[in-house]
Structures are given as C-alpha cells and as structure tokens.
Backbone:
C-alpha cells in the first residue's frame, strides 16, 4: 500500500470539510473491507483516508410505521442481521444480511459502505432496490436524497460525488398483503459472493386473488442491481396463475444482462433467474394465500 | 510518514509508530512476532488472519493497524490463561481438528466466539458461523466435532 495521510473524523461536518478540501484525492474509511483490499492491490491509492467509523451518530436503526426503516450508514451487516426491529418488520432483510459474506465482514462492514462500493456481486443492493429504498447523502454543499434506482450508475460506480457522504438508507414500509423473499444463489462456497441474487416482493389485492404489485430486484446479472420492470408489469392487475408466472419468469430472464465469468456463464445465469423468479413468486403466493 | 499507535494486545499495552498502510496483521506478525496470524488470501475471505478486536472477530489482513487504535486485540497466543488451554483448544486436540495447523488459530478463535454467542449450536449453525474459515486439510468434519465437543464440555462446566 502506498503511504497516505490518515485522518480521523470527529464529526460528520469535519468529514465533509475534508472531502471538500481534498476532492477526489480522499476516500472514506468505515469497515474497510472493500477499501483496504483495493488499496492493498493498488487499484486505488488515495492521498487521504478519512476514517469515519467513530461517528456513532451514523450507527442507528429506527422504525416508523409511516416512514419505514431508517438505517444509519455505519450500521453493520451484523447489526441488521440480529436486529429485532429488522426481523419483525423486514424479515427478508434480516435473513439476507445473515448470508452476506462471512461473520468477520458482517462484523465490520457497513451498509453505507456496501452500497457505496456498488459491487455487482453483492446481496443488499438487489433487495433494497426491490424494496424501493433511498439514501441520504450529505456534503458541505448540503443534503440530498437519492432513490436507489438512480443511485447505481455502473460497475462500482454510484451517483455519489467525491465530496459526499452517504449517511442514511430509508426503506419504505411494506404494504399490507405483501410477501417478500430473497434468494442468494451461489455456485461456489456458502460464503462466496452471489452468482445471482433474486428478490421477490409480491403484493396481492385484498381478495388475495389478483396481483396488486410485483417487484423483482435482481443482483449480479447486470452492471448494477436492476428491476425486471417488463416482467413486473406482466403480473400487475392479473390473477397470478402458474402459466403467467412462468411467462413473467421468462421475461425477467430476458431483461437481465449477465456476463460469463467464474460464477457461471451468461446463459446459465439467465436460466437461474428464470427458475428463481418463478419459484419466488410461487412461494410468496403460497405464503399469502396460505394466510387466508 | 508514521503515526503513533497505542493498543492492547493479549492484555499488554503497546505503543508503536506505524506507517499508515500497515495492516493489523503486519503489526501483529512482523512487529510483535505473534505468528498465529498468517497472510493467506490477503482479502479477508479465508480466515487465517482472524483475531478478536474488542471482542469482535475481524480479518487482520484487511484492517489498518490504525483502525485498532485504543482497542484490545486478542490473538490465539492470548487465549490460554496461565498455561491453561481454553476448552475449545482442548477439544481441537482431543478430536483431532487440526492437521497442518495453518487455519487452526482462526478456527479456534472463531469457534470461541461462536460458543460465546450460541452455547448450543446445531451442526448447521456451526457450519454457517464457521463458513468464513477455510481449511485445506481436514475436510472440516473433525473441526465440527471439536466444536460440538467443546460446547458439551463448556455446558457441563457451566
């Protein structure tokens, strides 16, 4: 690793000031799981590292029935995994967080860091995109809120400007009559990065026979996490019959843009998307209709 | 350019001057001669560099030494107290949960933490918790058995 100046932020304001002063020459350090690897391998050599792990005011979890879940950017995967609040209101998120990487990464890695890294082979972004989450980012110039669907730009690229800090993630409340699940599909070992990630959020109308909304958050099958919007539209307003679900799954597998790599071929990933979308919708449906 | 760093390692207060890019692993192994941490995958995946920092399992190979400022680090060398092995260490010996020993410090520390959080883990829970510690020798069976034996041993004593 090349030498750099190590700065410890004692306030968010101080971190923002430094980022403004040093522009693209500075990087934020929280858990360090992504950053330190990149620096060890010399992919990046920032001149300044601003350690924000000490900003306890960014480590929190709050739930409001109207607004949903407020997750401070420095909340670790481990906190999310074990939080009674998350388990109660967003069990799909708690069970996803349980499968992120390994226990050491979950202990130190933060949700803010995970989203900022924008690695395609990652689990939280796909689900959060399906849940229509947004993020708050702060700089010396002010504050703005970015819906996740606008946040991910390309491989490892987000809408974050060099002087901005991601401070909070907001997850809207789930509507009534909604079931959700996330499949982390791995082709390597248990703790490896996902080959394909499929989040299904299904909402039925009150009679539980018509689909009110379908959201499919797909990860690791495009440069960014994505929604299979055409597939989703096919089910909305329709009775979720098996044949239609199969067609929805087929469409979703056509919308993704996977690459062939060590996790699998592009063809294989499309097939897996097709299977998991069909299986996920079916499972959500069974859960909702079984509740009757 | 160096930075002063104060931290506690295995109960001993240490003061060092470190370059900013020095990892905790390099500090422990090269500066303090604690060889239980090994630079193996270099990316926090394999677990051979596992240590506890303030009671939390971390990958020391991807942690800057400066991130451990003011914290308490426990390595495998600090686990036995006054020459008395921890029940997990005893169990690994009894059950044969180690061959070449490379992964063993990480395995033991992680198992210690697992049993702290979950004193009666199922096999599935053991596998999930230990999934970030890789072993090329044993095939994991005896490691799992060692952890189960340790759990029983510790439950019996408690």
Residues:
């Amino acid at each position: 690793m090349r030498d750099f100046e190590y700065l410890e932020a004692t306030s968010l304001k101080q971190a923002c000031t430094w980022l403004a002063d040093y522009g693209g020459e500075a990087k934020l350090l929280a858990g360090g799981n992504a950053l330190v690897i990149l620096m060890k391998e010399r992919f990046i050599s920032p001149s300044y590292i601003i350690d924000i792990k000490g900003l306890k005011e960014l480590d929190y979890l709050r739930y409001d029935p109207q607004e949903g879940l407020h997750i401070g950017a420095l909340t670790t995967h481990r906190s999310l995994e074990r939080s009674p609040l998350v388990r109660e209101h967003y069990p799909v998120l708690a069970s996803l967080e349980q499968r992120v990487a390994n226990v050491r990464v979950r202990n130190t890695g933060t949700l803010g860091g995970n989203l900022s890294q924008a690695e395609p082979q990652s689990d939280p972004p796909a689900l959060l995109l399906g849940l229509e989450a947004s993020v708050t980012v702060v700089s010396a110039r002010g504050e703005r809120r970015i819906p996740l669907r606008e946040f991910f730009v390309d491989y490892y690229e987000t809408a974050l400007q060099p002087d901005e800090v991601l401070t909070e993630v907001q997850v809207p409340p789930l509507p009534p009559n909604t079931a959700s699940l996330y499949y982390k599909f791995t082709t390597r070992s248990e703790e490896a990065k996902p080959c394909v990630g499929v989040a299904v959020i299904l909402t039925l109308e009150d009679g539980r026979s018509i689909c009110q909304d379908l959201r499919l958050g797909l990860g690791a099958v495009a440069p960014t996490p994505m929604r299979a919007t055409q597939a989703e539209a096919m089910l909305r307003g329709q009775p979720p019959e098996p044949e239609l679900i199969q067609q929805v799954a087929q469409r979703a597998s056509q919308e993704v843009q996977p690459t062939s790599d060590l996790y699998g071929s592009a063809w294989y990933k499309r097939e897996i998307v097709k299977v998991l979308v069909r299986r996920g919708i079916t499972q959500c449906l069974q859960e909702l209709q079984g509740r009757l | 350019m160096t930075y002063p760093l104060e931290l506690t390692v295995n109960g001993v207060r240490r003061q060092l001057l470190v370059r900013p890019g020095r990892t905790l692993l390099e500090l422990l192994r090269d500066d303090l001669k604690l060889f239980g941490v090994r630079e193996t995958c270099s990316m926090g995946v394999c677990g051979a560099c596992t240590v506890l920092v303030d009671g939390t399992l971390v990958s020391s190979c991807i942690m800057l030494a400066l991130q451990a400022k003011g914290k308490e680090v426990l390595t495998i060398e600090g686990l036995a107290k006054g020459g008395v092995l921890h029940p997990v260490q005893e169990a690994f010996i009894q059950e044969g949960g180690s061959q070449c020993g490379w992964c063993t410090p990480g395995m033991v520390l992680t198992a210690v933490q697992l049993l702290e959080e979950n004193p009666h883990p199922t096999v599935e829970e053991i596998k999930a918790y230990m999934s970030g510690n890789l072993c090329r020798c044993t095939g994991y069976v005896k490691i799992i058995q060692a952890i189960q034996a340790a759990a029983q041993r510790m439950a019996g004593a408690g």
